Structures are given as structure tokens and as C-alpha cells.
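dumping this here before i forget
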Amino acid sequence: MRLKKLLILCGVSAGLAGAAPLAFSNFDTNSEGWTVINNGASVNPDYHATGGNPGGYISDTDAASGPIWYFSAPAAFLGNKSAAVGGILSFNFRTTPGTFFDAPDIILIGGGLSLFASIKGLGENPNTFEPIVVEISNTQEQVGWSTGDPNEDEGPTLQQFQTVLGNLTALRIRGELISGADTASLDNVSLTASTATPEPATFAISGLGLCAAGLYRRRQRSVRSL
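structure:
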């Protein structure tokens, strides 16, 4: 029954996503090369074999003071990812409750440029894995992209997205959302090419974009059980 429901969801969202992931991490066996960037240093996150959404996941715990830390993607998510312009970055995210502060939630670096995205509502349900979908474009109301230029009001141009994604050297997802000590968890990260992109009204609708990742994970488990 659960598989049937998942297939129904995928059928509904097929016209929205419609593409296999360019890169995908479900953390079912290890941290898959993801690291944590903190104060310029790269360290390994904590790996958990169970408790994810579902299966394994990664996390990191930050002290009460120090710089903002980010989950940093491995080589599989980097390089020429120009096909992802207009596509989506989706993931499951969980954080601890606290006082939130503003900072870029997604950072893309490449081609001599950096792009930053702020996600409305990220972490608004603490202690719960939330499905997050970020369009790599300027068309999603819940996501605000910028180049970091205070004089720029309209966000990155298509050419700037293409420049960065054509030679992507870093993809980072913010882990530290609150002031003080915190723990953030990450699961089911997927970078998907552009064929048709979702235009969700809420993150609940946005969560449909994760169905392809769910089917991928279920298929892997079925193969391992044979």
C-alpha cells in the first residue's frame, strides 16, 4: 500500500520534475563524501545508520559560539551541472528549536561567482525532517536568490546561473540556523536537471519533488534484499 501511494504521488508530480537526479545521496550506508564546513575547515559529519527519512542520515552539532557552518557536497554534485539550471535541489532537513537568524541557506560557487539562496520557512518545524525543494531559478516565491551584491534587486541572471552551474566547485546547505548550540540533520539530497520545474505553493506541495528519491531508495533496498 505504501508503495502504491508513492507511485501515485510520483504520477502526480511527474509533470513537475520528470528527470532522474544528476546526483543523489540517501546516506543509507555512509556519509557519501559529504563534509561540514566550519570556519574554513572541512570535517566529517556524524553518520547515523538509522533514524533518517527513512534509513541513514548525517548530522553535525555546533557549539554555542563560532562561525556559521554548512553541509558541503561531494564531487558527485560538482563539476559541469549546467543541466540543473532551472532544475531543483531537494533534501530533507531537521534542526533543533531555538532563535533563528538570517543567513544564506544555500551557497553555490563556480566560474568565479557565488550565488546565495534564502529559503522561507526552513527549520520552522524543529525536530522534524522537512522536505525542502529549491528551484535553481528566480521563479519560486519561497526562495530568494542573490549574488551577494547589495545593489542587485532582481537576483542572478540566467547567464550567472549557467556560469556557476557550468563549473560548480561548491554546493553548501546551511546547518546552523539558530543562535546558540544546535544540531542539524540532512537526508535525501537530490540535484535534478531541468525538464519541467515545480512551482509549489507550500513546502507540503514541494515535498512531492522527493518522490523520485523515495522510489530510488526503495528500489535499492529491494535489490539488496534479493
